[in-house]
Amino acid sequence: MSTHTADATDAARETDLADLTDIADVIVIGGGTGGYATALRAAALGLDVVLVERDQLGGTCLHRGCVPSKAMLHAAELVDGIAEARERWGVKATLDSVDWPALVATRDDIVSRNHQGLRAHLAEAGVRVVRGSARLTGPRAVSIEGADPASAPGVRHLTARRGIVLATGSRPR
Question: pTM for this structure?
Fold first, then answer.
């Protein structure tokens, strides 16, 4: 098991497949909103939790959906606010242009900070995060293949004492 400290870089580390024990109380498959919330709650209840995510913690909402969309909508609201201030309230304000690269950089910074904060929160809670693909192999058993087979070759088999939570999200058909 990897040791985590409050250091942001260290908190961002993931547990290597080789460092996993063969058993955990709960195994959560999927690190999106449902998965990480479940992992954090289980850890808060004192359970030993392994969370397996093949892509990025936070899932679609954090990286491609809700969070970046809301950041862009906020910028659009600010632009509309300038127009309303001028037209309705008599504020002598103009908008020359929108600096698209700066706007995108701000959006990406918001996503990055939330991602790092989530990783640190999971580490502080004691949730072991594994980057890889999990496959159910039994009622309380999974096999995990590392996301980068070159650095973590092979497959690990884990058993869940209490249960397995499937939080793999969805995809349009």
Answer: 0.83
